Amino acid sequence: MRPGMMIDKIIQEVDMLDRHLDVFQMVVDNEPIGIVKMSNELGYDHHEIRYSLRLLEEESLIDPTQQGATTTDETEPFIGNLDEQIDETRARLIAMKSGE
């Protein structure tokens, strides 16, 4: 493994998580919403939107419908905990940086 490859993978994962959250926010704000509109609004390719929607569906955060993606009963609790989970992850990364 070349130097920096591990960090590159982490950066790619963070970028993908950012996209998933962008797609999720679009559903929350505009439900029902389809792939084409999300792609046009967010600037991601259709296949990237489709992948994010599939992941969000597997997590029970959205439901696909004929009219487009919609939120579920799991959406609100997830949003309620999201800031805390991001803060905890950030704290872990800071601790790693400082060697704690």
Spans of at least 5 consecutive residues whose pLDDT stays below 50 are none
How many H/I helices?
4
What's the number of extended β-strand segments?
A: 2
* Spatial sequence of strands, sheet with the most strands: 1-2
What is the terminal separation in angstroms? 25 Å
Named CATH architecture:
Orthogonal Bundle
Shape by Cα distribution: globular
Describe the sheet with the most strands.
2 strands, antiparallel
Number of domains: 1
CATH hierarchy, class = Mainly Alpha
The secondary-structure element order is HHHEEH
> Which superfamily, in CATH terms, is the homologous superfamily?
Winged helix-like DNA-binding domain superfamily/Winged helix DNA-binding domain
CA-atom Rg in angstroms: 16 Å
* Helix percentage: over 70%
Indicate the proportion of strand residues.
under 5%
Query: What number is the mean pLDDT?
Result: 93
CATH topology: Arc Repressor Mutant, subunit A
Q: Which structural category fits the helices and strands?
A: mainly alpha
Explain this structure to me?
This is Transcriptional regulator. InterPro entries: WH_DNA-bd_sf. The protein contains four helices and two strands; from the N terminus they run αααββα. The longest helix is centred in the N-terminal third of the chain and has 26 residues, at 5-30. β1 and β2 form a beta hairpin. α1 crosses α3. The model has no long low-confidence stretch (mean pLDDT 93). The radius of gyration is 16 Å and the shape is globular. It is mainly α. It has a single domain (16-98), classed as Orthogonal Bundle (Arc Repressor Mutant, subunit A), CATH 1.10.10.10.
